Amino acid sequence: MSRVYNFSAGPSILPEKVLETAASEMLDYQGSGQSVMEMSHRSKVYDNIIKTAEADLREIMQIPDNYKVLFLQGGASSQFAMVPLNLMNGSGKADYVITGQWAKKAAAEGGRYGKVNVVASSADKTFSYIPKLDPSTFDKEADYFHICMNNTIYGTKYQTLPETGDVPLVADLSSCILSEPVDVSKFGVIYAGAQKNCGPAGLTIVIIREDLIGHARDITPTMFNYQTHADNGSMFNTPPCYAIYVFGLVLKWLRDDVGGLEKMAEINRNKAKLLYDFLDSSKLFKGTVVKEDRSLMNVPFVTGNEELDAKFVKEAAAAGFVNLKGHRSVGGMRASIYNAMPTEGVEKLVAFMKEFEAANA
Ligand code: PMP
């Protein structure tokens, strides 16, 4: 067996230990004589899996008691609609900050259900920064304020949260959830697709303050109503059983092997620094994001020459560093260095980049 260093933006690398445990339990989960894939979601053994995953997430993220954790499907993209359907129920208006493709898509979906006010955008410089926000431009009547906390494609991240007062802050954490501690009490809703830091695709995690549940518009499909899932412990219908099981393994790894979120954040900061320090000193490679808004998870960079970029991506893949091509909308390269990417993987990538630079600069 030979495993590569996988820098994919998602679905992405998972901790090897998690994959090994899943493999060892594939045919017989803890003496049940069945794979988790084969189990009834109503069985006692599965009930324990989903409840433990929720309890572990609550412990690791220190989620306050007045928040519900929902395990849904449909990806973060479904949340682009679910948020307005459930929350755009007062003034019918919402504030959005446009920091990339995902934020743009979220705002477009919000606009189907009410009035979207674009508070700020970084489109003018290809989303290479997080716009400075002036709270006096926020709509005090807005039903919510939406941000995309970490912009997977462009490699930017909010370093501080907007002060939205009584207006609930709704945040897409798809590509940064569990990468460092967050103060959940500052948010009305957090949502994230699982396929980066949490597990396989198919699971969508929603963390929602209880008072925001139960006000969905009449037209809201039953499956798109947060209340449906909150009232039924994410078991209104068949949940993404196997993805939740793997998520549970990832949470155990994060707590027991890594040592929790503070420790994870320290490792992530160190990994990102290795790469950014090299980019800042390189004669060939350049980071594309302003320094103060750099993401810890997604690191885009370019050589300034498309042919050389392509050559780099090709040679890197041949050397075992895969999925380094930038998003199709921006080109260049992007190294996604999620929680499961070992420090050694980043060290080796930097060493490879140095060799490439020496041969091509
Ligand atoms: N938001 C962000 C920040 C993302 O990175 C992605 C996917 N890469 C999405 C939303 C869309 O997620 P999904 O494919 O789970 O719908």
Descriptive keywords:
single chain; 361 residues; alpha/beta; Aspartate Aminotransferase, domain 1; Aspartate Aminotransferase, domain 2; 2 domains; seven-stranded mixed sheet; 14 strands; 35% helix; globular; binds 4'-deoxy-4'-aminopyridoxal-5'-phosphate
Can you offer a commentary on this structure?
InterPro entries: Aminotrans_V_dom, Aminotrans_V_PyrdxlP_BS, Pser_aminoTfrase, PyrdxlP-dep_Trfase, PyrdxlP-dep_Trfase_major, PyrdxlP-dep_Trfase_small. This is Phosphoserine aminotransferase. Belongs to the class-V pyridoxal-phosphate-dependent aminotransferase family. SerC subfamily. With 361 residues, the protein is α/β, with parallel strands linked by helices. The chain folds into two domains: 5-16 and 258-360, Aspartate Aminotransferase, domain 1; 17-257, Aspartate Aminotransferase, domain 2, CATH 3.40.640. The chain is built from nine helices and 14 strands. Helix 2 packs across helix 6, helix 3 packs parallel to helix 4 (101-110) and helix 7 packs parallel to helix 9 (343-360). The protein binds 4'-deoxy-4'-aminopyridoxal-5'-phosphate (PMP). 4'-deoxy-4'-aminopyridoxal-5'-phosphate is lined by residues 10, 75-77, 102, 148, 152, 172, 174-175, 193. The site of 4'-deoxy-4'-aminopyridoxal-5'-phosphate has 11 residues, from helix 3.
Total strand segments: 14
Question: What is the N-to-C succession of helices and strands?
Answer: EHHEHEHEEEEEEEHHHEEHEEH
Q: What characterizes the major β-sheet?
A: 7 strands, mixed
Query: What's the structural domain tally?
Result: 2
What is the structural class? alpha/beta
Number of discrete helical segments: 9
Helix content: 25-40%
Shape: globular
Low-confidence stretches: none
| Cα-based radius of gyration, to the nearest Å | 21 Å
Average pLDDT works out at: 97
**N-to-C span:** 35 Å
* The CATH top-level class label of the largest domain: Alpha Beta
> How much strand?
15-25%
